[in-house]
Amino acid sequence: MSKWLVILKGNKFDLEDLPSLLRSQEFNVTNNNGSYCLWSSEFNSLISADEVRERGIALIKMVNDAARLYRDDWHDVAVDGITCVEDDGNRHVYLYEEVTITARAKVSAVDVLISASGSQPVTDQPSPLESYLRLAQNHKPVADALHFYREDSWVNLYKVYEVVRDDVGGEHALIKKDWVPKDDLKLFTQIAQSRAALGDDARHASKKYKPPSQSMSFSEAKSLIKSILAKWFTTKS
Fold it and tell me: Is residue 130 part of a domain?
């Protein structure tokens, strides 16, 4: 049976991390002579390079979302092409070029045959990134939270808080979890909503959201939300 691989592009610093972060029997990344390729069991049922590319883009988006929780300085990686490895070891490589015309992107594929073979090392022990991905694939709220967390802004941190809050049954239910100090959580929500505290970075513009007497830095707020996510994830495993 032919094997589909998604060729990745991005910052070398980030690409080099992926083989050690994605190495399961569900999805893994290998380095083949400097070319980083993603394999997923989801590709097995697909027929065309375009189908694999579409699914690969969706998977890589989830990888980028999860990676920002794993590492703050993560730079997004992207799909560069598709490889089909035949049973005899030969490879068909589909390279995609984007041509921009009047603000629209038209995508075309070029088929190139390359003789090569490769292997995929796998492990049953998931990395932190793989754990996040599995949760995101199985739980839509987790995927939403990771999506919002990846952008460094007070508004998006508040959206993460809302996703978790709604998932556990509301604000009071979240407070009862005792995942973070109640006063710290209240301080975060007050600051995040107050334009008087944050200016245009606040969630609201209304003057009714008064600034608290205490302060909280963005890095402190991010650590608070990250701590909540970590505790919440354990309930999804």
Answer: no
